[in-house]
Every structure is written in structure tokens, then in C-alpha cells.
Structures
1.
Amino acid sequence: MIVDFKLPDLGEGLTESEIVSWQVSVGDTVKLNQVIGEVETAKAVVELPSPYAGTVTAIAHAPGTVVEVGEVIISFDVAGDAPVGDVPPVNAEPKRVPTLVGYGADPESTRRPARRGRTFEAPALSSSPVVVHTAQVQGDRPRSTPPVRKLARDRGVDLADVFGTGERGLITREDVVGFAGGRAPGAGTAAPAPASSMHAVDNSAREVRTPIKGVRKLTAAAMVQSAFTAPHVTEFLTVDVTAGMELLARLRASREFADVKLTPLTLAAKAVCIGIARQPALNSRWDGPNNEIVTMNYVNLGIAAATPRGLIVPNIKNAQTLGLHGLAAALGALAGTARAGKTPPADLAGGTFSITNIGVFGIDAGTPILNPGEAGILALGAVRNTPWEHQGGIALRQVMTLSLSFDHRLVDGEQGSRFLADVGAVMADPAMALALG
Amino acid sequence: MTTLTLNQAINAGLRKAMEDDPKVVLLGEDIGTLGGVFRVTDGLMKDFGSHRVIDTPLAESAIIGTAVGLAYRGFRPVCEIQFDGFIYPGFDQIVSQVAKLHMRTHGQVRMPLTIRVPFGGGIGSPEHHSESPEAYFVHTSGLRVISVSNPQDAYTMLRQAIASDDPVLFFEPKRRYHAKGEVDLDLDLSRAPAMGAARVVSAGTDVTLVTYGPLVATALDAAKAAADEGVSIEVIDLRSLSPIDYGPLEESVRRTGRLVVTHEASETLGLGAEIVAAVTERCFNYLESAPVRVTGFDIPYPPSKLEKHHLPDLDRMLDGVDRALGRPNSLSGLEG
Amino acid sequence: MLEATASPGTSPQPGLHQLIAADGSAVTDELLAPFVADVDDEQLRGLLGEMVVIRRIDFEATALQRQGQLALWPPMLGQEAAQIGSVHALEKDDFIFPTYRENGVAYCRGAKLAGIMSTWRGSANTGWDPYEFNMATPQIIIGAQTLHATGYAMGLAMEGKESLAIAYLGDGATSQGDVHESMVFAASFQAPVVFFCQNNHWAISEPVGLQAHAPIAGRAPGYGIPSLRIDGNDVLAVLAATRWAATRARSGGGPSFIEAVTYRMGAHTTADDPTRYRGVTELEEWAAKDPIARLRAFLQVRGQLDAGQEAAIEAKADAVAAELRAGCIGMPDPAPMSIFDNVYTAAHAILDRQRDHYERYLAGFAGTAEVNTLPAGARP
């Protein structure tokens, strides 16, 4: 049968060669490996040994012709019934050189290394968080990674309390960082309660020693971490919130709001959400390990609350979707759960912005410390009757100071100021919510 | 139940295996007339004859190599290598032939050999009599490797090894030959724990301590001493070294979060290295502290007066446990 | 019953035992002649035909290696008489433990050509089922097989069988410890084993003089094993000597050693270049002692080989060569996942896990273009 010999790739990126000479003619019998001709590459004249034994039936190109790699140059009539199969052209390069004991090593390739393409099946969606708790019920310890365990240990966080948002319930660094931190003492709508870790005071001693543990330890660690990681800037805005308070009073009387409690905190929560929509930098976090700033498109609004165990900051998930009524309901539930000491770990993780109400203590302003991992925290001062400019004159108005601390890595002065101004504007004139929202 | 020492239990296991299968033949130096240098084969030549309990010339390679030929013929040879340190002349036959013949012949030829090796130190002997060469064989695909720690396991696992159609290296802790234990001589092999199964020999909650062979007894002692300090150690006897049964190890580490592995063999590339790597891969997210290895040093086995410094003892094991628990230990303050 | 006994050795026979000289003339040998008294001309033609066929197999396999179809091939060129003569002394129940060079023995025993080739192509570690015709797989660890043969023979003795085990080995192997240990065991247990040593004068590039300072046949009597030194290129002498050893083994006479003096006319393996270590003169000397030429001459002189019979032999050789070539080139590559097969007889959790993981890995490439297998000459 007739087989064609195509010009092989002689290596070095050549796509063509010139036929220099033929050593055989049509009709000649040729043995395997017999030199049948010469071709010229850019570097040298190269001999072509025959890959077949047989009779030459055709020579396709005369000497002097430039031929492309892969073109037929000579044909043979090969004896035997079976096709020779995949006998590689004898001088195709690169090829393995046999050794005493085998085919030999793969030669170095002239091609750029490349990976083979792959496809993966989409991984199954992570199972529900319930699985984590089930595993823990079975006796397994919480799943995390050694560095995160160390972080938790350093912060006094018990991983059993932390909700894991990672794959299959893995507790991530963010989960630990977002776990109940603490800052300046304050309370939501709950009355402050003494921390359970405090021992009874023995007035006869010169000093009292209280072990550092539990929530206080947690809170302290969080504060330290926050204070010495994020560059804090605090701005103050004192606003006349009389109109806001009047709105709240009107709404309290309405049937729609009969089932919830409305306070300045409720209005502030709404104002914060509106402000975040216009200044998203206040709702971001600093992801150092990945060298990225992450801006969340949702607001998990944390509210500082005092509990029997100490100060915690549970958050309302997706607060941006709630209207005034929804916020009021959430705040009420949050406070009630916190007072009962039953705040679940899920509520304590994932916060994006926090509010602390120091006004209930009669305090005007402060320099709150950020909840670790968050970009901003707003402290609400007390609402006081204060002589204030009103319609060109002096009148007693209901005045409140808003104190905003922000992380200056994430929020610049203009952003922080504009945010605070927006919040103040909504507190001062709730109708502004229509204009700004 | 019968009270037997470890070497008596092995003797009983050999006897039972030979009674059950006429194809079982024993080969080794001094195993016949003398009954073995540790009396492990005592009485067997008298009862089964010199054609089944064969005193061989002094040639370890030939002991294994002729066993290969016997296996080709359909026998089930049980070779004894008199001491761990003398296995090396037979290493080539074990690794190049015994381990590979089944795969080499596409499963057509089986090598149901059992190679018994008294191993480990703590017997106050000169060089080459206290080696722990198990890692070389665990690293050789095609072999199964087991190491017993007590008379009951010695009795049942030896019989399982002989019955297995795969070649099995059976490492006997010679320093425990005289340790006594209860043995159920009538235990049916099918109802005994699998040859490849690891076992929790002492439950605990604070640390998982994994070992095999001669150090199981030491680990149990360490667990008792630790209990007096309020530390609860879970001791696992691997029993099978190839394959290692990771199920119980993983289940334990998922609970304790802390792993200590101990063996007489040198640290580098000993079984501890494999176990730590595998458990870290499988249980990374449950680990509270870095796994700890308490092992012999990377030295040739020392003279007998110094062996106590080389072999992990109760105190060294507990020092490792302290390290795993983050308690003050001999390496406190050292980074890496 | 297997018992260790001390057996008196037999001193090596002086000279070289022969029945057909290099020029084809008959030679008298009182020891060997009785063992082949029954061999007639037809059987001799049969032996000739088989030697021609296995020489052709050798030639074809060498060519296939040159064409990249085999990783390597260990030529048996020049040793045809040693292989054919010895295998024909054996019964079906005798068990053979070969080296890697006894491909002629394998062919005669019934191994399929494609099977024989598969080992050298790199498609398999073995080319046949050992129990199909009682021949172990090719042994690459020099000398290891002698222990296996001895152990097998010990087993035969324990069972009271009349079969034997035969270990093929080369001159180089007689330096290996395992070979000497096997002779110790064989003698001590009077195992029915035949040690068939082909002294082909070369272990890769090392001459036999490096392996032995005295005739190799003289070693075995030192262990108490009788031995014969024969002309390994004389197929009739080889047949006779192997029958002598087999008779001893079958009748409880224990082990024997045969040194078949022959010559490795080819290279150690196909990528070896013997011109680097041996001269042309030596090759010419041994070419004059060619085993096929001498038997052909022996038969022709007696008028027992005509053109038609020669042609038939050539035709058979051609057919075998074609079948071998087709079987080799057409051999499918083994399946990737088969690397995990037969490592153990039963499940092994660690290996099974690796197998599962690799299967997943490979599945990730299913259906995607394999960038790294562009045909030679193509440009990416």
C-alpha cells in the first residue's frame, strides 16, 4: 500500500525547509532508516532517514523547492498487510532517546508550558448552618482554622458561641471579629445591668479583684483590637430634633404603631440606613489579608445593649429593607432578647454599622469606639430642651448631639461629614427622608 | 479465657493456623529443634514435623526467597526473621519480589506470606537487636504491616495474617514477650476485630495519643499518670500500620483537637510523620494545637546503657502531651 | 519428606560436553548420548525450526524497538540452542523460573507473542499467566529467581511430586548472593531444582572473567551439587544435559547445575553498544560456532534437510514475525486507572482513597481538549 512521508517538524520553530537533494529515485527499493534525502533548515543541512521500508512511488518536490512542514514530499509502496500504524516520522523533533533500559526520558519541549483545560462540577451549596450545631451536639468541637482559633483565644472568644459562615459551618476570621465586641458602655432601650462576672463588693477591703473572663473579657479585647487597629475620627453634630420627636409622638398614637415602641433610636436607625445609602463607605470593612475594601450592600445594624452578662451588640439583619415600623419591632425584639440573656450567636455576628444610645444616661456626646470590623458607629445623646435658634429667634427646642466615630482608612472626612449631616437632617426633619432616600 | 504471655499467644496462634491449614509451613533459623530464641515456636516441630517447621540455613534472603517459591507452589509460608536488625539481607526479596508479585502477575500469583519480626528495643541488647524498621515496609506498596501490643491481638491477628492472601509483615514487640494477658483461644476470626482496625484502648477527652506495638503499654501507663493530674488522654492502638485505620483517629481528634503520636523508631519519616500529615489533612479545622511526635531520635540505636534516653518513656510522652495542651513543657518558649 | 542431608559433591566433568561440533559433525559423549538416543531427524528438524523462529522473533523485536514500538528488547541472538534445547527437556508440570532473556523459552512454552511483547513495550509488567504453562514472569533482579525455584522445588519434595523446578541464570548472576544461598538450600534440602546457567560471556560490558576465576561449573560441587559443563550452542547436548539433570531431580537425586557455554551475539539490550567493550574478532570466532548453522549442517550432511523443509521453516518464521509485529503495534495502551489494580488481594483503605481521588482528578479533564498532546510538528 502507498504511504506518504510528510516533511516533519525539525524543531526550532521552523515552518518550512528547502529540499536540498534526493538520494533515491522513483522505483528504488529503500530500507528502513536509509538516508533518502537532505533538507536545509536555517541552521544546517539535515539528512532524512526513511521511516519506511519499501519502493519509492513518487517524489513530490524537486530539489530547490521550499516546502511547508506537513506537506507530502515522497511516497512509498510499503509491503505487508497491516498498516505501519503510528510510526512517528523518524527525525521529527523533539523525540525520546532510548537508553539501555527503556524508551528514555521525555525531551525538553519547545512549547510554552500550559495546563490542560478542566471542568469542575459546581460544588454543592453549603449546607445550612444547622449542620454545625448538629455536629457540635455529637461531640465534635467547632470547626475553624488554627490561626482563627488563636485569634479567638486571644480575644477570649469561645468558638462554641460563634456562628460559622464559612463552608459547612466553618468559623471564619470575620465571624470571630464580628462576634460581640464592646466599646464605650451604653445601652439600647434596656436598663443597664451589672455584669454577672462581677463579684459582690467587699467594702472592708482596700481593693477588689475580679477575674477577667466572660463577656467583659471579650468586650475588652474587642475594644483594644478596634481602638489600636482602626484610626478613629469622631465628629459631632448638634441638631434640633423637635420635628422628629413630634413625628414620633404622632405615630405613637396611630393604630399602625400601636404594637411597637417608638423612640429616638428608632428614627436614628432609619436615618442611618438612609445615610449609608448615600455614603456607602460608612458600611464597609477593611480586608487586610486580601488587600481589599469590602463594601456591603446590606446593613446589619448593631445596637449596643446591656445584658445580664454584660454589653453586647446584636444586629438587625438587612435593616435597610425595614421601614420605621419594622425597625421598631426589630429593636423591641432585640432588646427583649438581650435583657433575657438569650441573644443567639447568629445575632451577634455579621454587623456592618452600630448605634449606641448614651442619651438614656443623660449624656450628650462621646467618642465611641468602633465595633471591630465596622467602619462607623453613631452615639445618640440625650434629647434636651435647649435654647436654640428657631425661625430667626431663640426658642426652647428639643436638641440632641450626634457623635459619629469612623475608621479613617475607610471613610474620609467629607464622607463622614456628609453622612452625619444626612443623619442629622433626617432626625431634624423626617420629611428629608423623602428628599434623600 | 486463658492467661498467656505474648510469646505464648503467638505460639498458640501458629499452632492453630497450622492445625487449620496443612499448607502452612514455618521457616526460620533455630525455630525447630530449639523452638526459637524466644521460645515462640516451642513444641511445634515435635507436633508438626520438620517438614512443616523448617530450621533453615543462616540466610535471610533465602528464607524469604524460598518462601516465594513455596507460595508459587501453593503453600502458605510463615517466615521468622530472628531479629529486626537481620531483616535487611532479605529486604530485596521482600520489596522487589514479595510485595510486587501479585501486581506484577495481574493477580494471578498470590504471595500469602507472613513474615514475623521481633522488633523494638528495651531489652538491653547489643547492636542490631533493637531496631524498628517498620517504616521501610509501610512505605512499600503491596505489603500489609501490622504490629500487636497484647496477647489477645497477637493470637488473633497472627492467624488473620496467615489467612490473608496478601503478604503481611507481623512486628512483635520483643520487650513485651513476657507480658501477660487474657486470650480467648476459641474466638472465631470472623468475629474478632478486623486485622486492619485501629482501636481506642483507653477513652479520654483532652488529647489523642496514638501508638502501636511496644509503646501501647507505656502510653496506657502515661494515661493513668495523667489522670492523676486531671488530664484525660485517649490512647489509640493502631494495630495496623499499612493500612492505617484513620476512622478512630479522626473521630477522636474531632473531639479532642489535639494529637500526639509516639513510636520507638526515629522521628524523620517514621510513622508519626505520616500520621501527623494525614490527620492534619483530614482534621485541619478541628486542630487546637500543632500535632506532636514523641519518638526515637535520628540516631542509630544506642548502646544498651543509653537506650532509655532514646526510647520514649512515660515522662517524655507526657511532656509531649503537655505541649499539645499548651501547658508548660520542655520546649516552652521555643519557636518551631 | 524434606530433610537436610549432607550430600557428597561430584567433581566437574573435564572439558566441554558436546554431541554436535561447531562444523556440524557428530561427537561421541558417553554421559550425554543415552539421554537423546530417542531423538530422530524429524525431532531435530523441529528443534532447528524452533531455533530459526526464535531468532526471527529476536530480529523482529529489535526492529520494532528501533521504530519506537518497544521500550527495549534483550536479544537472545546466539543463545537459541541453550533456550530451545533446555525447554524441550521439561514436562508440563515442571515449573520454570526464567531471567528476562528467556523469551524463546516463553514462546516454546506457549506464551502469546503479544504477551511477550507487552512487557518490553511497557504495557504490562508481565506477559502471561504463570500458571497457564508453569513459567514464572521474567525476573529483572539478577539471581532472585534461583531462590524462588529452590523454594518451589522444596514444595514439590514436600508434596512427594516427581516434577522439578528449573532456574535459568546467567554468568553474571553467579556473583549474586541469592544464587549461592539457593545452592546452600537446594543441597541441604535436596530440592529437585535444576540450575541452568547460560554462560554467554558478558554481563552488559563485564566479561565472565570478572565474575569467576575458575569455570562456573566448578562452583556447584562445592555446595554438594553435581554439575555439567556443556557446549550451550549444541542443542542436542543441551537437551541431553537438561534431561540428565531432570532425571536426577525426578528420582529424588536432588539439585543439579548445568553451565551451558554460549555467547551473547547481540547487545545486552537494544540501546547497548557492545563495540565499546568487545572486539570484532571475538564475534567472528563465535559466529563460527553458531547453533543454527551447525544443526543445519548436521542435518544437511545426513541428507535430512531439503529445500522444501527449509522453505517451510522460513515461511513459519515469516508468519511468526508478522504476527508479532501486528500484535505489538496493535496493542492497546493500558487503561490509566489500572495502575491501582492487583496491588492487594483485598481492599486497602489508603490505596482505595487514592484511587477515588485520582478518578475525580481525571474526570475533570473529560471532554476538554488536551493541550499537551498536539501531534508532532503542529504548532500551538
Note: The longest helix of chain B spans residues 6-20.
2.
Amino acid sequence: MSSIAIPRPRTYERPVVLDWLTTVDHKKLGILYLYTTMFFFFVGGTLALVVRTQLAVADNSFVGHDLYNQIFTMHASAMLFLFIIPVWAGFGNYIVPLQIGAADMAFPRINALSFWLVPPAGLLMFSGFLFGGAADAGWTAYSPLAQRSGTGMDLWIIAVILLGISSTIGAANFLVTMFRMRAPGMTMFRMPIFCWTVLVTAVLQLLATPVLAAALSMLYIDRNFGGAFFDPNGGGNAVLWQNVFWFYSHPAVYIMILPGMGIVSEVLPVFSRKPLFGYKAFVFATMGIGGLGFGVWAHHMFTTGAVLKPWFGFMTFMIGVPTGVKIFNWLGTLWRGSITFETPMLFALGFLSMFLIGGINGTFSAAVPVDFALHDTYFVVAHIHYVLFGGSVFAVFAGFYYWFPKIWGRRLNERLGQLHFTLMFIGFNLAFFPMHLLGLEGMPRRIATYSDSFNWQTLNFISTIGAFMIAVSTLPFLVNVVMAFSRPKDQPNDPWEANTLEWWTTSPPPVHNFDDVPEVHSERPLFDYRHGSAASH
Amino acid sequence: MAAHTGTQHRQELSNGMLGFILFLASEVMFFGGLFAAYFIARADSPTWPPALPADKLAAGVELKVEFALPFIATCLLVLSSVTIQFGVWAIQKGDRSALIRWLFISIVLGAVFLTMQMYDYSQLPFRADDTVYGTTFFTLTGFHGAHVAGGIIFMTVIMVRSMAGQFSASRHEAVEACSFYWHFVDIVWIALFTTLYIVK
Amino acid sequence: MPVSRVPRRFRQAAFLLAIALFAISSISLASAQSGQPAGITVEAHKMHDLWIFTLIVALVVFFGVEGAIVYALFRFRKKSDDLPPQTHGSTVVEIIWTTIPVVIVITLFTYAFIVLRDVENTADPQDLTVHVQGFQFQWGFTYDLNDLGTNTPDRNAKGQIVITGTPQDNPTLVIPVGEPVEFTLFSSDVIHSFYVRDFLYKLDVIPGRDNKFVVNPREIGTFHAQCAELCGLDHGIMRFTLKVVSRADFDKWVSEQKVTQPRAVQQAR
């Protein structure tokens, strides 16, 4: 197998802090993204604990209603805009150029701009707490309610616009990188599946995020310039906000999950010792989800009376089909494999089961008359968290444990990883399964308290215990990471016997990524190299 | 700064140009969102323009636009697209001084367009808070005006770079990118003008 | 190449535990009325039937797929260092497991479409109409004396019964059983949502939009209801009670209301 030498750029010596502040290296930017987004994960998680403490018992007054509305708004905003969407930019930044055998992203300085928009946006959003109250109309900011919020709302709007810009220019960067900078022999259909999911995510980000920017601009104008976009008194339309908002925010949920599915699709084959079953079908299913994702937005609006319910119900059912195909392909990957259960695999398997539940409980809402009962109740909160936590967050941790050796040159301890997974898996189900029942019992979303006479307390209390268990489960993870950093960088290039090009180079990679790159003949160039091309077919 | 160019076969479209075109696609979606809001607001309103409350009627507010001046401004903007294209063709043949001249004319035309827009704003009998008609009008034309201003700055930078001799027949990608952006701004305006002034 | 070796007994115990958990959750769901109350209106009963059908499909799919996953994890765990067959995929299998979900979702959609058509009705003019106003943070219910349903004493009567709630005193909305009741929804501040758990239904109260719906109550009783769309500070306590009574009791209630509000006044909206 021949390999191609790569010219090395010059490197410069700089003081460490200045280096990190001015870097345009995709690996350093990726690490900065990971630190920043994990920080906001813990911030958002802490806010969740406040919510769960307030709801643990009936008629509670742990926090007042005003603060409660800010807390759940900022919980969701931090988790969605400051954690789950940019964390994929973090993994994508570090891994995509390595997986395609490139030395960096297509536009390194734009890349730096993308990252450096995130921390100030986060601070801006949270500064609302210091200016009379943070945004408090939910992360969905429905009109006309959002017009009545204080300055925190304007800060929130500007912050989200900044994050949208970061997302959009980042998306253009990923697309050009993947279209143009693949290693010799790597056709599009030999590109790693994680890269494919980042690609489709980038298309969604490029096309959908600007619509959110438009919506937020309109909200800002209504709030600050007497605009009447959403004000019926001025001839405007309150439901217009929901249409423009969800036109972005529904594709956004696929932005939040697809790269996670990509990570799972990398991990399952490695630890089953066989290829991803149906790679091409998987790629098409991903594109299908991306495309269909633009056509279902009004399923968030079935109870407004203002949307064409049969059409959106039908489209929502249809999007279950490519999603199901993916689950079956993952099952097909496990089938007749040779499976081991290292921590990345534990989280990937957890993803598989929890996302299955999340996909199924979403199907209930696709049946419009069923949604009439479930909409805006805790059933939907259960759905959201099964796909976003049981799904995306588990995938984040799978990615962490899988790529930690590559990024930092050390292995995370297995026992602590297993402890983390076990506690998090149990805590997660304790926290969110009862919410299905609470929603069916009639508990609406976003209520600061509930009466003892409704008999919701037992399930709420169990849910709160689960939430704290999730919090506790992060301790072995943090301890594991800290301990790992105190060990020497001793990891080989390919500790997992994996399939893709990032494992060809050292752990961590040199600044220029590769001294040479093997020629690519399939979607598993490392496997081919280890076993000789004949074994891959 | 690519280590290698991988498996690309066509080099006509560079990485930078591809990235710029993708950026323009996102801009199309931004204006798309604003246009969608306009059309939905219009479809939902019992009358268009919507009825004004009594106090605004008494104060002399009217929800209408005049045609003549904006039409002239539109023609000038379309002309500026033509002139910048002449500039692109010029530098493709290596004619640097022609490029500079055509850029200058395009900048002037763009600035005149903006000036006429601002004058038009001052003469309009309604404001952004006068029903959703006023809000959509000023939002759409306002964001467009901001993009025109951005385009004028872009063209000025390109003109200065041309004067510094940075472009040639074989290296003038930034000029092409600038012309794409300017054409985009022009096309958005034609759509806006048709929607707001012709179809009403 | 490190391998995680989980002791056999532990794995067996975990497997049995998983089975037990599934069994417990299924039984408890089934016994708790399949999770969802059956509802008190004709429309709710239809929507509840759809829920049951969807639940059965969901459980079958879940146990089938999850069962296959759990089985695979046990059956195909690593036993030797030999590489397993490197199957890349199978077009036939892909077609099968694309077609079956399409059939399932089309079935679900068709049933859902039929139920949707059946539960969204328009009211007849002689049906009782309750005008609901949602405001931050309570409810108001207005009955026109000339529009009280089957037993309207005087179809030319002027005057209204107005019930307005306060946070300390949640209002009670009274309707008769056995005849259609129409609700019209109005808000002049922000979006609220009119949600009665036992209707298995909610409809948003949107400023500038005339939302309305009709139900046919079939059960007498007292039922909890509250706002289901975030509307500001006290959204969480924007509650009311629905009371479904016999027609006779409803007529009695009406005459009591007229007595307590002898000078009910036409309200301009």
C-alpha cells in the first residue's frame, strides 16, 4: 500500500496563552470548543437541578415563579445553543480533517472566528441575570409573551444571533473542507460516516440558521421599535413567530442529533469488529432525515388551529422511516459481530436503546389527535430528553471516551468509565421515564409548581432523585479526566484497532496532522492496512 | 492552506469561491425568512394594507409608497450590476485600469441608490410602527440597505486592492466574489421592488 | 488489545433484571389505564382508542427491536480473536426493513387521519356555547342566556352569566352532560392554552385568532384543568375546574347564577 508524503508548514514558538488565544489550528480550536461546551453542559445541568428541586415536592417555594421561568429558559438555552450544537463543532473540528487525511480545515481563520463567537455569546446570554432578569419566555420565546420580557430577552436575542453566525460560517467551512480536501482515493462514498453526518448537519445549519436570524431580528424589532410582526393589534400575527421559529428549530433538532449518530456509527463497528452495516443506506437515510426535516416544523403547532394538520402529521410519520432504517443498520452492525464492552461502546449501546425509546415516544405526537393530549405536557419533556440526553449526550460521552486517547494521548480508566455509564444510565431513566406518566396524567410543561391534590408528587420526586443521580454520575467522569491528565502521554496511534484515518497518525497528532497518508480504497482505510485490502470485502 | 487538494478534478471553482457561494446561499435563506414573514402577514391580514387605528389616521399616517423615485433608484442599481460585470470582464482580460474605472462607477451608483433610499425613507407617510405593513416594509428594505452598504465597502476594498496592483488576468478571485455579492444584492432588490412597489 | 470481561453470572443476572423491569413497566402501564385516562367525551374516547392502538404498535416495535439488541449483545459477544464475517450490508434486508416501517406509519397515519376528521366538528347554532377568555393569569367564562343548549328557556333573552377566576379562587366551568358544548377562545394579552386533561384535548388561546372547538361530554364529575402554554409569571397556577352535571342540575345552576347576577350586562369585546 503506497502512501503520499505531505509538505510540512513552518511552525512558530509562542507563549502558551497567546498561542491558544490566536490559534487557527483545528485541533486546538476543537479542544477549546470541547472545554467551552462542557462548561455550559455543567451550567445547564446545574440549572436543571434547580428545576428538579423546585418540582420535587408539591406546592414548593424553593424558587419563586419569576426566577423559575428564567431558570428553565436558560437551562434549555444553555443546553441547546451553548452545549449540544457547538459540541459537534468541537468534535467535528478536531476529527473531520483527520478522518479525511487533511492538514486542517479549509478556512482556518474563519474557523477561529466561529469558535470565538461562542464564549462571548454565552456570557451575553447569562448576563441577563445581572440586568433585571434573564430571558424567561422559554427557549422558544413565543410571541406575544416574549415582547413583555425585560432586557434579558434582548441580550438573549443578540447572543443567539451571534451563535447563529458562528454556526453558519462554520457550516460553510465544514462543507468546503469535506468537498475539497479528502485524501487521494477517498471518494465521497469512502468518507467516514461521522464526516457524512457532519456534512448533512452543515447543510442544515447553512440553510436553516439564517431563518432563525430573520425571526430573531423580527422579534427584536417588535420589542424595541414598535414593530407589529407578531402583534395582532398592528395587523400582525402571533402564530407567525411560531412558523418562522420552528422552520429553523425543527431542522435544528437534527443538527443536535446527526453528528451523535455519526459517532455511534464509528464506535459500533470498531467494537463489533465488523463494518457498519449498510453504509450507503445510512448515508441516504441521513440525507433523507435532513431533507424531510425541513418539512415537519408545524408538528410543534398542532394545537394552534392554524396549520395543515394532516400534511405535517404525515410528514412527521415519514421521518420515522429513515430513522428506523438507521436503528436497524446499527443492529445489523452488532449482528454476528464479535462484541466487547469498553466504555465508548457502553455509551453507544446506551444511545441505541434510549434513542429507540425517544424515537418511539415521538411517534405518538405524530398522530395528531394523540398530540392534542400530549402537547405541552411532560410527555414531550420525556421525548425531548430521551432523544437529546439518552441520544445526543450519550453520544457525546461515547465520543469523549473513544477519541480521548487520540486527542490527549492518554487512556481514560475503564472502571471509572463503567461507573460513570452505569450511574448515568440508571439516573437518566429514573429522571425521565416517569415524565411519560406525568404527561399522561395531565402535568403541563413549564409550571413552577403543582398542587398536592393532583397526585403528581411521587413521580416528580423519583424524577428528582434521577436528576441528582445524573449529577453524581459526572463525578467519576471528571475524576477520570483529571487523573488521566496527570499520566504521561503513552497511547499508541491506534489503541482501539479502529477503521479510520485519524488512527493512522500519532496520539496526539503533530501540528501538521500527518507525515504521510495511506491510499484509501474503502471506508475503512486503517482496517484495510491492518488486514491487507483483500480482507475488507 | 491545504496540505493537498485530494480528489478534486475541477479547479475552476476554488475553495474560497465555493465557501463564498455557500455563504451567499445562507444569505438567500435569511432574506427568504423575511420575505416569508411578509407574505404570511399579508395573507393573514383581512385587507392589505391593513386598517389603521383612528389616532394614526387623524395624524395623517398613510400606508402607501410612491413609485417614481424608487423606480429610478432601481434602474441605477441594475446599472451598477452591469458596470461591475464590465469590470470583471475587464480584469479577466488583464485590463486593470478599466476594472478600477468600472468599480468606481459601480460604487457611485450604489451610493446614489442608498442616498435615494434614505431620502425616500424621509418622505414616506408611515413608520416602522405603523401596522405590520410599515414593519415589514422597513425591515425588508432596511436589511437590504445594510447589505448594499456592506457591498459598497466590499467594492471599495476591491478597488483599493486593484489600485495597489493586486489583481491580474489569472488572479482576481476576490473581484469575482465581490461581483457575485453585488449581483445577489441586486437580485434581492428586484424581488423586493416587485413585491413592495409593483404587486403591493 | 484490552477486552472487558464481564463475569457470566453477572451478565445472566443483568439479563433477568432487564426482563423483570420490562415486565413490571408493561404491567404497571397496562393497569394504569394504559397510562392515559379514558376521557369523558365522545371525542376523547376516540382519541384514547387511537392512543391504545399506537401504544400497542409502539410496545411491539420496542420489545422487538430492543429484544434483538439485547440478544445480539449476549449472543455475539467476543469469544475469540477471530474476525467475524465482514458483512457490508444487504440490499434485500434494507428493502425489507424500509418497507415494513413505511407500512406501519401509513397504517398509523390513516387511523389518525380518520380520528382527526371525526373529532374536529363544527357546532350547531343551538348548541351551548361557552366563551372562554384567558388572561394573565386566570380564566373567564361567559354564557349567553339565549344560547344555553337544549333547554334554553328563552332564545331571545338578553344578558350573560360571567364567571371570572382569581388566583386565590379558581373558577369552575359548569357544563351539562349528554349534549354538544362549544368553547370559543379569546385572549387579548398573550397565548394561553385551554387544556382539560379529561378531554384529552387542548386548544391554544391566541390573541387575534378565533379558535373554537366542540365536545360531547358523556360523564358527570369534577375535573381538573389548567393553562398549557407558558404565559408568564403565574402560568403554573392558572388553573380552573370543570364540572360536568346533569341537564337538570345545569338548569338549576343557571337559574342560581341569574339570581346572583340580577343585572348581567352585555359585554363589549
Note: The beta strands of chain C are 128-135, 138-144, 160-164, 172-176, 181-186, 192-196, 201-205, 211-215, 221-227, 239-245.
